[in-house]
Amino acid sequence: MTGFRITKADTIAQCNAIFSRKTLHPLVSLIELRSGDCCTLLQTGFYSVLLVGSPSMSCSGWDECDFSEGILSFIPPGGIVNLDACSGCLQRQRTLLCIHPGLFDGVRTGNGFTGDSFFRYRNSEALHLSCCELGIIRKCMEGIGEELLWDTDEYSATIIVEKIGLLLEYSRRFYKRQFITRHEKNIELIAKADCLAEKYFLSGQAVREGMPTADYFGRMLGLSPAYFEDMLKCETGRSVPEYIGDRQFGIACRQLRQSGKSVADIAKELGYTSLRNFCSTFRRLTGCTPTGYRTEN
Q1: pLDDT of residue 213
Q2: Which run of H or E residues covers position 8?
Q3: Does the pLDDT at position 110 exceed 90?
Q4: Higher confidence at residue 45 or residue 38?
Q5: pTM (2 d.p.)
Q6: Under a CB-based contact definition with an 8 Å cutoff, are residues 251 and 202 in contact?
C-alpha cells in the first residue's frame, strides 16, 4: 500500500463524515458506497465488514473451488479497509458495516459479537459467497439498516446487536462451508505443514526456539495464523498445540523404531521439556514406556 493515501476514522461519526453520510447511531453505521466515494484505503478505530457484490474472480484470494457472487471481508480496529480491493469494484455494489465494540457493552445476547477469528484473517482469506449466501448477508445488513432508522430507545442496542449477531452467525456458517469446498486445497496445505514440522523438529529448532506456533506455520505457508488455526481445526479436528504434539510424538516413535539413539537423546532433540515428560506422554498415548515400545517394534 506504499504510495497510497490512507484516510483515518477513529469514530463512527468521523467515518460517516468521510462519505458525507448522516450519523444515525454513534456506535454503528451501514454505508452503501457509491462510485463517487473517493476514499480507497480506510483505517478505522472499530470493526468493519465490507460486502462486495459480483466481484472480479481474481481478487481477495479467489480459487476455482470458491463461489464468486460476492465477497465478505472482516477488518479489526486499526486494520485497513481496502474499498477497492477488487479490480473494477468501484462499479459494483459495496456495503460497509462499521461496528464500534462499545456497542456490545452491557448488552446481553446469545448471538452477539465474540471477536470472531475471521476478523484476524488477511484480505486474501475473505469469504467468497454463493448467490444464496449473498442474498442472506444482504438481508442481514438490510435488517441492521432498518433498525438504524428508528429513533434510539432502550431497545435499540439489543436489537441491533442481535441483528449483527445473526450476520456473524451466518458468516461463521459460510466460512465452515468454504473450508469444506476448499478441502483438497486444505489437504495440500496440511501436507506442507507436515513437512515444515518434520524439518523443524529434526533440525533441532524446537530445542533452540521452542515449539512451532500458528504464527510460524502462517508465515511459512503465506496464511494468517488465525486462518491456519481454523483451517487445521476444520480438517483435522485438532488445535495447533495438539497437531504439533502429534507430529512431535510421531517422529519420536519413528526414531525409537529406526535409530539407535537413546531415549533421553530423542526426548531432548525433539524439544520435550524433560525425559520424565516424554516418558509420561508416551505411556499415556501408547500404554507402554519408550523402551518397551522400542523392544516391541
Answers
A1: 97
A2: strand 6-9
A3: no
A4: 45
A5: 0.91
A6: yes
Q: How far is the CA of 297 from the CAs of 104, 270, 281, in angstroms?
A: 57, 20, 18
Which residues lie across from 52 on neighbouring strands? Answer: 71, 94
CB 256 within 8 A of CB 297: yes
Q: Which of 115, 155, 137, 125 is closest to 25 using CA atoms?
A: 155
DSSP 61-115: T--TTS--SEEEEEE-TT-EEETT-STTGGGS-EEEEEE-GGGGTT---TTS---
Q: Give the number of other Cβ atoms within 10 Å of residue 14's Cβ.
A: 14
121: its cell numbers: 484473517
Buried (b) or exposed (e) across 104-117, using 16+ Cβ within 10 A? beeeeeeebbeebb
Which one has a higher pLDDT value, 22 or 151?
22
* Torsion, Cα of 30, 33, 39, 44 (10° steps): 20
Phi, psi of 285 (to 5 degrees): -90, -25
Proportion of the chain above pLDDT 70, given as a percent: 90
Query: Residue 293 pLDDT more than 60?
Result: yes
Q: What is the pLDDT of residues 47-72, one digit of tens each?
A: 999 999 877 666 678 899 999 999 99
Q: What is the CATH number of domain 6-181?
A: 2.60.120
- For 184-296, the fitting CATH number among 3.30.450.40, 3.30.70.980, 3.90.228.20, 1.10.10.60 is 1.10.10.60
Q: Where are the domains of the chain?
A: 6-181, 184-296
| Contacts of residue 167, Cβ cutoff 8 Å, sequence gap at least 6 | 49, 97, 137, 140, 141, 144
For residue range 264-274, list pLDDT tens digits in order.
999 999 999 99
